[in-house]
Design brief:
Strand order of the largest sheet: 1-9-6-11-4
Structural class: mainly beta
Bound molecules: thymidine-5'-diphosphate
Strand content: 35-45%
Number of helices: 1
Order of helices and strands: EEEEEEEEEEEEH
Distance between the termini: 20 Å
Length: 142
């Protein structure tokens, strides 16, 4: 998996009445949850995201339908399909993400470690490559 990303599994309490998944900040995730948002009604052939975060950590879950997430660093790239409410994708610092192939009715739930602040975003790709190359090269030397 791309550096600073990993899959996180959540226990399913299932039965003939359906399934329930519970997520507790810090217990089931590597951070406390300060913000929750969800993305719905994404038209076909639409790609969202195209940014990275400097300090924010997030877990992405597709709680209905399916969606693909492309995660990238200057050195690695991977596409992760999400289609299981019991499986989340953790994305840590300085990873570029793009979300695409939303199925009709897909609901992408995002659990975030910080409140919203535009200052934490890197939206310009060449700026991203510059900052992230410095960040990941520095980590390799540690
Ligand atoms: P953005 O992060 O650009 O969405 P995506 O990466 O999925 O394409 O956010 C879209 C808009 O929503 C933008 O105007 C900022 C706003 N927004 C908030 O106000 N609060 C939030 O927590 C988030 C994630 C976005």
């Amino acid at each position: 998996m791309v550096t600073n990303c990993k899959m996180v599994s959540f226990k399913t309490h299932g039965g003939e009445w359906g399934n329930l998944n519970a997520i507790e900040g810090s217990n089931d995730l590597p951070f406390d949850i300060r913000r929750v948002y969800y993305i719905t009604q994404v038209p076909e052939k639409t790609t969202r995201g195209f940014h990275s975060h400097r300090a924010l950590e997030q877990v992405l879950l597709c709680v209905n339908g399916s969606v693909s997430i492309r995660v990238k660093t200057p050195f690695e790239e991977e596409v992760i399909p999400l289609n299981d409410p019991a499986q989340g994708l953790y994305i840590g610092h300085m990873v570029w993400r793009e979300m695409f192939d939303f199925s009709p009715g897909a609901v992408l739930l995002v659990l975030a470690s910080e409140r919203y602040t535009e200052k934490d975003y890197i939206r310009d790709y060449s700026q991203y490559i510059e900052e992230a190359t410095f960040y990941f090269e520095g980590r390799q030397m540690q």
